[in-house]
Amino acid sequence: MRKLSLIIILGLLSGCEQFLNTTKNENQQIQNNKLIQNKNKQYSAEELELQKKATQLTREKKYDEAFPLLKELADKGYKREQTLVGGWYERGRGTEVNLDKAEEYLLLAANQNEATAQFVLGGLYYNKYKNNIDREQNLSKALSYIEKSAENNNVNAQYMLGSIYYYGHEIPQNLDKAKFWLEKASNNGDEEAKILLKKLN
Predict the structure, then answer these.
(1) Residue 177: is its pLDDT beyond 50?
(2) For the chain, how are helix, strand and coil distributed in percent, rounded to 5?
(3) DSSP 9-60
(4) Contact 154/14 with Cβ under 8 angstroms?
(5) Stated pTM of the model
(6) Are 89 and 97 in contact (CB under 8 A)?
(7) Distance from C-alpha of 40 to C-alpha of 98, rounded to nearest angstrom
């Protein structure tokens, strides 16, 4: 079984993959229309070029150079970059570790209904709980954001929530809720969820 402490790693990998996979079709659209829709916010042609540069620097593992570009976009309200900046503050990638800043940027993205940010933020609060920091409050926050992420179809969150209810980690065991979330994760292709479901059925 995956350990809950892996939430941050899994969430960041998902967020980075999303960031690095800006498609050729999007680039063609920006050339034709000058703007590309990012749900509630639009990238200008200049901002898309900035994003592309940050992507390339990240691929080259030049995190110190990529971070300020990501932060510039995050500060303009783009939730994908807010997720990455929050994650990088948490990990100390391209910048010093700053958990307060990590929480700040992840909250900005989570409040825009960004599932990856909600998942990573849940992991951040859970780690605070495990480190005996405001345990009851941070456990409640952790579970709340993991559930929000699961509701937004993040398969890692769905599996994690299902396994929490299945094993009764930190909260009372609830096999009905375990089955509900494990079925969601299984339908999204999670193999470990399928294994746990077999034990329930």
Answers:
(1) yes
(2) 75, 5, 20
(3) HHHHHHHHHHHHT--HHHHHHHHHHSEEEETTEEEEHHHHHHHHHHHHHHHT
(4) yes
(5) 0.79
(6) yes
(7) 28
